[in-house]
Amino acid sequence: MLVVGVDIGNSTTEACVAELDAGSPVYLGSALARTTGVKGTTENLHGAERAIRAALTEAGRGMDELAAVLVNEATPVISGLAMETITETVITESTMIGHNPDTPGGAGLGAGTCVAFAELPGRAAGEEVVCVIGAGIDFEDAAAGINAATARGVVVTAAVVCADDANLIVNRLDRPIPVVDEVTLIEKVPLGMRAAVEVAEPGHTIRTLSNSYGIATVFELDAERTRMIAPVARALVGNRSAVVVRTPAGDVTDRRIPAGSLTLHGERGRRTVGVAEGAGAVMATVRGIAPLIDAHGEPGTHAGGMLSQVRDTMSELTASPVGEVRIRDVLAVDTFVPQRVTGGLAGEFALENAVALAAMVRTSQGPMALLAEELRRGLGVEVRVGGVEADMAVLGALTTPGTDRPLAVLDLGGGSTDAALAAEQVHSVHLAGAGDLVTKLIDAELGLDDTELAEQLKQHPLAKAESFFQLRMEDGTVRFRDEPLPAECFARVVVLGEHGFLPVPARHPVEKIRTVRRSAKHRVFVVNAVRALERIAPGGDLRGLGFVVVLGGSALDFEIPDMIAEALAPYGIVCGTGNVRASQGPRNAVATGLVTAHAARPAEAAR
Predict the structure, then answer these.
(1) Which of 84, 99, 110, 364 could crosslink 157 through cysteines, CB 3.0-4.6 Å?
(2) Which residues make Cβ contacts (< 8 Å) with residue 125, sequence separation at least 6?
(3) Is the pLDDT score of 52 beyond 60?
């Protein structure tokens, strides 16, 4: 009797083919396909068919030989994400340029009145000016004009340039000055206003314009205006070059947007918590009322909009009334989000405190019956829905060599983190937040605006291309190559992907990217792993767990299993990545469990 077990997950659909010989399964092949649609809905049909056909092809068997398809009782789960900024840049009576170009010229601090290059000849001796050199001005002409003004006694303290000409200009000056270039919106620099330009020596960062009191000294600000200028200083921290310009009163302003709040309903009460209080306060509130029954966000905020969208999406996909859709878990994570600085002239961003929210909903299991009927019609084969997902995951995990009951399973997916404990009975829990949230945190905190690149950064280690034949790995070791690296990788941080080297366009060093990557994984996977295991452990004590097997696509990550094992080490838990059937690694556990359970049923009936 030939059967196929099918596990429909949040991100992938897995299948395994087995021949049942006297009740004992002989596994013949496995396959993996991307899940189509939201898990547990009829949209999963195409992904499931692809996985089944691929598994049969690997086993060398045909669809006409198939006796039954076994599908798990997958409760529909959908996760939504929102980034809610809880601090905001507010700049009044100032504008700034601090985009940290690769090659600023000169060094030091210069302050004076902004003067267009064409107006330099009309300036009086002794006047302190910052020369604004617009587009179309040749670097040799710019240097000659500044030298001529200096010879007449005009004190040219610094320059701001549109083109990438800073060093070319400085190298031709009789008296070097700090020069910041690559200012694309240079026409918006307010002429006639006081400005300060700072360029640090190579290998150093600016000191005066990244200090609120330094800016106050240059512009002679009082205490109230120093408070207003503080966001400018914070945005410039870590830059090698910067410009701050005083603008006419009220010319540049920004408005504050409320962070909003969450109202959480649990079995132990109902509480409201402000998102501005941070992730710690949100999660403490969730723990205080757990288990969560439902959650609502304040209307008109990011959090409220996200939770409403999650409800609407699930209602539409499952044909369930919106009123029956419940938010069953919320994960809040503190993060930083780059926000465009109002008044910036070169696309400047400032890192603002934010809270990332992941929410998960569950509905009835009715849609699985509809999916089974669709599969039955599409494949012309009997389709059986049986086996709770958590129970099947445990059965599959038990095929990992070296495991035994009591066994806890951590299934790390894309949208949720699931845990199950097999003791006398199987207890399970589903929590919001997993791989998708990690990807979003990396994307936001590095300011990439490229989720595909963020996904690659999450999955693979990094290196710095120090030459065409030399890579310095993120652990400090050096790797030499016989063949030259692609030209686009030279002097860049690269991702060591499965299909070659992927250059990272951002200017962050290897250390910064690695720190962001590991921090995001810890804040989501490690925190959720401990949170899930505490929910299923006897009395909430992790010391009551014996074996923990990590499963799912994220278990293939090169860092996550070790990070979780390290976090659980103090509790004496044996923790590691699963190896289903001693051959599949952390994949295929639920599909294998479905086949194992189906094979055991005739034997149980006989007894």
Answers:
(1) 110
(2) 152, 153, 154
(3) yes
